[in-house]
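Risk register update: the risk of archive-format incompatibility is retired. Evidence:
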Amino acid sequence: QVQLTESGGGTVQAGGSLSLSCAASGRTQGNPVMGWFRQAPGKEREFVAAIPWNRGSPLYADSVKGRFTISTPNGKNTAALQMSSLKPEDTAVYYCAADFRFGTTGYSNSQRYRYWGQGTQVTVSS
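Archived output:
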């Protein structure tokens, strides 16, 4: 089994910045794809960003492109999401996701990911 531990999040005013971190532990064999999704109240979970290890470039949702940056600052089993120019519509619970099966497609599909974090709240006030 794999466990994902998230940290970061909180409340910030519109235009501000926040960072989220995620670390995978346990049976982390293989080259993962790490992703971030979010879910606002009353809405479905949506893709935010993903980064595959050693096989391609990061992928972003159009709504966050140019404002959010995903990276693997501490190796392949970690993922960070740097969020800037935050908007009230970015308010949601953010979930880290990971998958260690080989593949180069479907990174924006939540069903692609086997492991999920517990979620962390991000609130952007206007």
